[in-house]
């Protein structure tokens, strides 16, 4: 924050600060910028296809990125991570997909996933 956003998080500052992307299909950071600032920006970025590595890279100051709230809640509480724009969240729908060929065999796993998600994830 001190290096890339010393005055404030602006569209120009975001266009110069390194962003993190999970992979080449990850457009969440760009979508967040459009939601918050009402326009797009070209973001310099690093790809990091590891959920924990993504968090660790943010903590190390290698870039900024969107992370699941549950995954970074402790880091936010401790100050190890900060919100770029306070309360500017970006909700992403999640879907449980399995092949219909194995749906019967994975019924127990499906129920376990649904039970774990209940109360932890917000419904739209």
Task: Give a written overview of the molecule.
- The protein is mostly helical and 124 residues long.
- The protein has two domains: 11-78, 3-Layer(aba) Sandwich (D-Maltodextrin-Binding Protein, domain 2); 93-124, no CATH class.
- It has helices spanning 11-16, 28-37, 51-59, 69-78, 107-117; strands at 19-21, 45-47.
- A two-stranded parallel ribbon has the order 1-2.
- It starts with 10 loop residues before the first helix and ends in a 7-residue tail after the last helix.
- This is LysR substrate binding domain-containing protein.
- InterPro entries: LTTR, LysR_subst-bd.
- GO terms for molecular function: DNA binding; DNA-binding transcription factor activity.
- Keywords: DNA-binding, Transcription, Transcription regulation.
Category by helix and strand content: mainly alpha
Q: Helix-strand pattern, N to C?
A: HEHEHHH
Number of helices: 5
CATH class of the largest domain: Alpha Beta
Q: Say what oligomer this is.
A: single chain
Any idea what the shape is?
elongated
Estimated helix fraction: 25-40%
Number of domains: 2
CATH homologous superfamily title of the largest domain: Periplasmic binding protein-like II
Largest sheet: 2 strands, parallel
Give a count of the beta strands, DSSP E runs of length 2 or more. Answer: 2
Q: What is the beta-strand fraction?
A: under 5%
- The CATH topology of the largest domain is given as D-Maltodextrin-Binding Protein, domain 2
- The residue ranges in which pLDDT falls below 50 over 5 or more consecutive positions are none
GO molecular function: DNA binding; DNA-binding transcription factor activity
Keywords: DNA-binding, Transcription, Transcription regulation
InterPro entries: LTTR, LysR_subst-bd
Protein name: LysR substrate binding domain-containing protein
């Amino acid at each position: 924050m001190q290096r890339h956003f010393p005055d404030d998080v602006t569209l120009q500052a975001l266009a110069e600060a390194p962003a993190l992307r999970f992979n080449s299909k990850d457009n969440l950071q760009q979508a967040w910028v459009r939601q918050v600032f009402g326009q797009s920006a070209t973001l310099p970025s690093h790809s990091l296809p590891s959920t924990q590595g993504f968090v660790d890279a943010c903590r190390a100051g290698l870039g900024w990125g969107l992370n699941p709230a549950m995954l970074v809640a402790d880091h936010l509480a401790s100050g190890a991570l900060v919100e770029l724009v306070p309360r500017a969240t970006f909700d992403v729908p999640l879907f449980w997909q399995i092949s219909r060929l194995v749906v019967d065999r994975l019924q127990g796993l499906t129920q376990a996933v649904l039970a774990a998600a209940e109360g932890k994830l917000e419904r739209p």
